[in-house]
Write a structure and sequence with these properties.
This protein has about 120 residues and is mainly α. It is about 65% helix and about 0% strand. It has helices at about 5-20, 35-50, 60-65, 70-90, 95-115.
Amino acid sequence: MHDISNTDDVTRLVKTFYGSLLQIEEIKPVFAGIDFDAHMPHMVAFWEFVLLDKTGYTTNVFDKHVNLPIKEEHFAIWLKTFTDTVHSLFQGEKADLAVSRANSIAFTFQHKLKAMGKI
């Protein structure tokens, strides 16, 4: 197994992750109506920014998710699925960074949504 090192790796991670996540019944309603084919380049660009220091991604990720019907229990599902996906595909410094950043993102989103009274 190799580490995450380029756009193809990030694309594989993101597509595999969402392919798995969207099979989980509790998660499906959160993403109902989202065109993943159209959204995929944005998700790949975000993770390229996070993992490969690629410039160009400037969107506020939290703002894009704040109005989704996210429940507190979704965070554990999202994080476990992401972590399992990373570990099934990659190993190394960037793979570890992906899991670490996903933990930070989940914690931050959960904290902000609680503060807003949304969860």
